[in-house]
Structures are given as C-alpha cells and as structure tokens.
Amino acid sequence: MSKSVYEFWFAWPDGTKSRLPVLPSELNISNGSQNESVNIAGLGEVTIIQDPAAKTISFSSIFPARYSSICEFRNFSKPWDYVNKINKFKNNEKPSRFLITGTPINIYVTIEEFVYREGEGDIGDIYYDIQLKEFRFVTVRKVDTRPKSSTVATATKRPNTQTKPKTYTVKKGDTLWALARKFYSDSSQFKKLWEVNKDMLIKRDKRNIKQPGHWIYPGQVLKIP
Length: 225
What we know:
Strand content: 25-35%
Mean pLDDT: 82
Helix content: 10-25%
Strand order of the largest sheet: 2-1-7-8-9-6-3
Number of helices: 3
Low-confidence stretches: 35-50
CATH topology of the largest domain: Elongation Factor Tu (Ef-tu), domain 3
Number of strands: 11
Shape: globular
Radius of gyration: 21 Å
Order of helices and strands: EEEEEEHEEEEHHE
Oligomer: single chain
C-alpha cells in the first residue's frame, strides 16, 4: 500500500509500466513560450506553434536494492532492471507517458538526460538524475516554398552570428550533463565544464572530489570553454 497520494509512473511504448519505488525530494518543472520553424525533407518549410513551450521535468531519486522505510511499496524491480528499461526507451522513436497521481501531470515525454551511479549509500542502490521533456503530437502544415517568378534566386546561407557565452550562471535544476548538451549538443562533453570549473566546484562542495561535477548550486558562475 502506498505511503503517499503521489505515485510516479512511466508507461512505456511497449505497453509495460514502471512505478518508481522512492519519491524524489524535489520535482523541478520549467516551461515558457517559443515558436519554431524547421525544415523537413520532402515537406518544405514547416511551422510548429509551441505556446506555451514544452515542459521540462527533472528530479533525482534512488532505485533501492532492498525495501526500507523510504520505499513507497514492496516487491519493486531490481535497480538495474529500472536502469535498463529507461535506457531502452531513452532513444526510442516513440514517446513514453509520465504521470504523477494526485497531480495534473499526465503527459507524453522524451527522456532527455539520464545519469546514474552506485556507491553513495547502501551496496546495490543506484542513485540517478533524470530530465524529461514534454512530447507533443503535431500536424505539420506544408508551406509552398516554390519561387513565384521564373527566376530562381540562389539562396545564400546566413552565417551563424551567435557566439557561445563565456560564462553561465547556474539555475535551479541545472546539471553539468544538461549544460553540456545545451552548449555542445553532447552531454558527454560535461568533462570540459568540469575541468575548467572543478576548483570552484570542489571548494563549494567537497563531495565533488568523489563525484566530479554532481554537486552544483544555483548562483554559481561557470566558465564555458
């Protein structure tokens, strides 16, 4: 029987479901508003209206190896079963459904980030951080991009004038993995951020010595190489 009215569930694309055995201590949800135009091969220019922008949900918790007082229920799956299930559908073409009972959260999501580790507590426990992004099924609108005149102008690619920021102020819910994806489009590049900021991060929290880059805090100013 549940200890709380809140139950965290994933409904996977293969028809199976997974309930998280330990509730996170904090749930971060962000959204905004953004319109975007993209090019899809064979369809021409497609406009996707996103108002408000897709929600991003992130939290941290534990996959325990055995039942204890922090668990919401008994007879849960083994830690590595959860890890393998999430990794299986992280890069799946179909979204998963994420819901929290007792709340309005019941949405399709993609798994943007999933970082896990052993050794912080009891033997066999797996600690993890996960970031989800709301997935929306859209109907694309084809735009006729054929030139109206008989003369076809040669398109000139506009140069990218955006410059990468030299520093970044940490916000609530940020992780080095997510920031590496933001700045380098590759979360595995978090080591770049760690190397140039490790002295400051270790000084703020000594736990970064054993778990490089895991402990960052809002307000910290990171150098972006």
